[in-house]
Amino acid sequence: MSNSRILVTGAAGFIGSHLCETLIQRGYSVIGVDNLSMGRLENLAAVSDHSNFTFSKTDVSDTAEMKTLCKGVSTIVHLAAYKIPRYGKAIDTLRINALGAFSTFDAAAEHGARVILASTSDVYGRNPSLPYSEESESVFGSSKVPRWGYAVSKLFDEHLLLSYRDAFGLPATIIRIFGSYGPRHHLSWWGGPQSVFITAALNGEAMEIHGDGLQTRSFCYIDDTVDGFVRTIEAKDVDGEIINIGNADEITIHDLAVLIHELCGSSDAANLNLIPYENFGKYEDVRRRVPDLSLAKKLLNFTPRTALREGLLKTISWQKDAL
Ligand SMILES: NC(=O)c1ccc[n+]([C@@H]2O[C@H](COP(=O)([O-])OP(=O)(O)OC[C@H]3O[C@@H](n4cnc5c(N)ncnc54)[C@H](O)[C@@H]3O)[C@@H](O)[C@H]2O)c1
């Protein structure tokens, strides 16, 4: 419990809405900021009428408005961003992630607020040495492949935040999120492969797998992701740190599809449709992605608690209603 005031950018999105809910439950006063480009006000239904919650429909790159909103704020959690430009719009990802960070960090510097930045496991790129510790190298492909624009934009945000810390004494912590899933994830590829697989399985349609399906991911249930953020907010000695938050259990995309098919109650064999990467133009996937969580354990005593099966069952139950 705390009386301090926290501003969450990207509040109406998947992670932001869950984080706002948890912070309100813990007694914080929360200002949610979102331009609703990808988020939905419905995501904030559980907190929108709470006396400790206010929402502002604001574009994070509006520096003047951000400076006004940040008055009296002790911590800013910067989640507003655009993700991997899988279907074009690389310019949105680069513009929003760069300008939004400048604006948010300027507002923080003006009011002496601490910043917690949501970064991504994508900054490790296609580094083949696993698991990824926070000291692992960033290995990216050609600039002609637009997907790396997201990783580069987030790496830029990380450098920018640490340079603001250096220049203005801004307390700052970076969280590198490894694939989070759960209720309220987007019902498209924006929400991750589990989201589209669940929709396909519930509708009895083929599940589209990009590539051979043997690429792996480590999925972290939203409650655990949010727990990592809350522990960071409440930790005393994490200034200047970069911390992985996720779940180290690894699964191939093929096996994920089969598991979701089973958990959706289908008794027949899963209908998998393998689509070659060439169909997406210049797209490049990452083969494996596994976090080393030892720093999160040491600094935050963080351990993910939700097994994939359990988290998927909760997500499927939500998605049945959402569809
Ligand atoms: N979900 C994951 O698995 C995952 C993994 C790695 C990193 N991240 C990072 O975590 C953060 C949140 O991700 P998410 O999955 O909740 O995404 P999301 O798209 O659900 O949420 C992002 C929110 O930011 C808002 N937004 C976008 N541009 C904005 C702007 N210019 N001004 C104000 N609001 C704006 C959107 O409307 C949306 O509500 C992002 O920074 C993302 O890069 C997420």
Hetero groups bound?
Answer: nicotinamide-adenine-dinucleotide
Strand content: 15-25%
Q: Please report the total strand number as a whole number.
A: 13
SSE pattern: EHEEHEHEHEEHEEEHEEHEHH
CATH architecture heading of the domain at 5-180 and 222-248 and 290-304:
3-Layer(aba) Sandwich
Write down the oligomeric state. single chain
Structure at a glance:
This protein has 9 helices and 13 strands.
Label this structure with key terms.
323 residues; alpha/beta; Rossmann fold; seven-stranded parallel β-sheet; two-stranded parallel sheet; 13 strands; globular
Explain the overall architecture.
The structure is a single chain. The chain has 323 residues and is α/β, with parallel strands linked by helices. It has a domain at 5-180 and 222-248 and 290-304: NAD(P)-binding Rossmann-like Domain (Rossmann fold, 3-Layer(aba) Sandwich), CATH 3.40.50. It is 37% helix and 17% strand. It contains nine helices and 13 strands. The chain has helices at 14-25, 63-69, 90-111, 148-168, 193-203, 222-234, 253-263, 294-300, 308-322; strands spanning 5-9, 29-34, 53-57, 75-78, 114-120, 172-177, 180-181, 207-210, 216-218, 220-221, 242-245, 250-252, 272-275. The longest helix is centred in the first third of the chain and has 22 residues, at 90-111. Bound molecules: nicotinamide-adenine-dinucleotide. Nicotinamide-adenine-dinucleotide (NAD) binds next to helix 1, helix 3 and strand 5. Nicotinamide-adenine-dinucleotide is lined by residues 10, 12-16, 34-39, 59-61, 79-83, 96, 100, 118, 120, 177, 179-180, 186, 192.
